[in-house]
Amino acid sequence: MIAYLEQFVSESESNTKLQEEEEDGNNNKKILLCREMELQGSIDFDCNNSASSNFAAACKDFGGLNQSRPLGVIKPVGTDDLVRVIRSVISMTPSSSASSSSNNLTVAVRGNGHSINGQAMTDSNGLVILMREINPQIQILTRNHHNSCSNGGCGGGDVFVDVGGGVLWEDVLLHCYYSSGLAPRSWTDYLGLTVGGTLSNAGISGQAFRYGPQTSNVTELEVVTGKGEIVTCSENQNSELFFGVLGGLGQFGIITRARIVLQPAPHMVRWIRMVYSEFDDFTNDAELLTTRAECGSFDYIEGFVFVNSDDPVNGWSSVPLSPNKPFDKSRIPKTAGPVLYCLEVALPYRNGDNVDTIDKVVSKMIGRLRFIRNLQFELDLSYVEFLLRVKQQEEEAKANGIWDNPHPWLNLLISKKDISGFDQTVFKKILKDGIGGPMLIYPLLKSKWDARTSVVLPEGEIFYLVALLRFHLPMVGPSVQDMITQNQEILQCCTKQGFDYKLYLPHYRSDDQWRSHFGNQWSRFVERKARFDPMAILAPGQKIFSRNS
Ligand code: FAD
Predict the structure, then answer these.
(1) What is the pLDDT of residue 6?
(2) pTM
(3) Do 60 and 97 form a contact (C-beta atoms < 8 A)?
(4) Which of 54, 73, 129, 188 to mutate to test the pocket of ligand 1 (most atoms within 8 A of CB)?
(5) Which residues are annotated as catalytic?
(6) For residue 194, which of 265, 258, 106, 119 has the smallest C-alpha distance?
(7) Which CATH code fits 13-133?
(8) Is 113 in the pocket of ligand 1 (CB under 6 A)?
(9) Which residue of 14, 96, 226, 299 lies most exposed, with the fewest beta carbons within 10 A?
């Protein structure tokens, strides 16, 4: 008994000693960091400081599934501050850190923190850099440029915007549109995301079928690498870094500036939704429009699955675009299954365009499609309103408290050959009652993506984006854990059926899973890491590489 107590006392003493050593080590790190970095901006070590909403924000993300307290949160004022941070973190050797442990400091770059699984976070061994206010400039450049995008569609190529990596897409839109009538060609559905954050993934929305993802619409980047070097890169200059960073999950450098292709923006958009009961009709029509893309036709194509019921969140009422035309359920064929499909397109036009002409163009383009007649919805709205359409939903969700609840989202890229099987097993069975949020599905074309970027895609020219955008409704809907379990069930189902798919905005925990995600591009990814961030200090929240001492 005494021996047991002695062991207990010595264990708890050594635990306390370890904790004290760790705290001492952390305090030493903090002092050294402050001294070595000589930041022009600020560093905050205190999450209990009530003025520090920055610190609190850096401990979580939009997903709300993870909490992690970093060592410090940095608000840099310019690119030089980023260089100072990276170089200080690298140069803090075990002896200079005055800690018994080795130097394991990491740097997590936070755009707008709209990741789901802690990708922009780090633990008490790391610093979070807040990018929102660094380099806020947005500058339009017009010139005969030779750097044209390899995957461009019609229009664009001579006018660009230079924008800081921490700027929100929403601000890019408003600046370009109202100062010059121009706009980028490829968007995300929601624009409260930073340029650096989406370029680190891909940036996909309804325009990607024509112009490629946002990563296909950038001609130049300025990057601070994991070695603390500022590098300008493009297709022809430091190209390995340029393509590595695009879709690179923040692994190779911090995007401080991006040059994005612009084109003349339309004034207006006709937004159209068409309902289908048969999955094959829906996908055939979506693929037809996607592959038939011409200048002057739709420049946005998406789709979604909804529940064939009066469920107020997941059902028929999620389809109409205005109260003027409600959903007429009598139109649904008796043969319809538990879910229905909605194809969503948009036709851009200018203020002076004749409405009759627009009507005729639309009729011609959708006349032969196989949607259920009279289950078609249309709305004319300004281009800016259309692009900011999710902002209105954000405001409503914030007002009723749903926006800040956890979001166990699942995003997949699935090969065309398996999309029908996915519908049969996942939409029609596992998700037949909906998910408490949108279930997006639309086709994309691989030829619009540059294989030199770090993004990995399924096989084949046509693949589908499937986005399960769950909103947690406490008391009413399933628990967050149930939602996570259902996501796992879906992934297991895909694996079991041998579906060819990749996670978009991937999150894995083990080396094997990352290897399998990247497949034959794993060695290229590893080589890029060794070259541009050899100490593996960047983006620890992705959990791909461990910090080298
Ligand atoms: P963060 O979450 O802050 O960061 C994401 C990753 O990028 C982290 O690893 C971070 O370290 C890294 N990173 C951030 N900034 C930089 C930088 N400057 N340089 C290098 N690395 C950096 N995605 C789409 O493609 N299409 C959509 O339509 C879409 N809609 C969305 C709607 C909502 C409401 C939400 C929450 C997300 C949506 N997303 C969409 C996903 C979104 O693109 C990604 O989560 C993106 O990473 C979020 O950008 P962020 O600025 O918040 O990045």
Answers:
(1) 44
(2) 0.93
(3) no
(4) 188
(5) 114, 189, 302
(6) 258
(7) 3.30.43.10
(8) yes
(9) 14
